User: Fold this.
Amino acid sequence: MSSAEMIGKMSELSSKGENFATATVVSTKGSTTGRIGFKILISQDGSILDGNLGGGCSESVVVEQALEAMKVGKPRIMSVLLEEEEKGGIGANCGGSMEIYVEPFVPKNQIIVFGGGGERSIAGPLVSLAKTLNYRVTVIDPGATREMYPQADAVIPEFSEKAISNLRIGSGASIVIVTKHKYDEPALKSVVTLEVAYIGLVSSYHRASALFKEMMEKEGVKESDLRKVHVPIGLDIGAQSYEEIALSILAEIVKSTRGGSGLSISDKKGVFTRKPVEQEAKAQVPES
Assistant:
């Protein structure tokens, strides 16, 4: 591929919401197989999609570092010593070394909404608010049209199983099922085994309990998988309208993926705050 073709491939991967990385030789010393400017494009599964660094030995080592960089989302510079392994090298015998800049490209946070009803349900405001928070939003809804979800990045008018099988879902993705119960079960079955950051179901406690029981007993779904599902969904902010419920859902997603407590900041660090929660808990424990 030419440089233009590589850029086009990178754009294609980005549009699909896939992680990828580039690795570029930025300096060399002594005898090396690669030259400054040599570059490879690495997919999220470790495949080299284009380019070369001058040899298979160095490329396999670089791919390992690229996959790690994609996990943490930070670039790195690595040194590749082209010596035998006994001398601390990678098994080559050129005698030189290369400095390689590894740059991961991690798409925006991804939210997949199993929707139903467009703007006339929680799904519509959820999509709009997620876009305000700079998420990449995909809507899966058998009855959907682009007009129903004008702000979504992608609208897939398919049933859950077919849609998921053709969709790349990163480990940092969040999934919200808000199908008005029409497609709850098939949507859950298609995602509960995925390793993602968040799965939430819009449902009451009683309805979800009955659904989970049926899925475990009749469908063989594992309890450990269903335990990953947030239901009832959202943070308790007293939400009533569709827009407020969407806000509570997004708040829970941010809390879950960022590691927040869900408490008011003023309750933890306010000027006239109460004692820290940990201290209050200890104070309430009676002495023996």
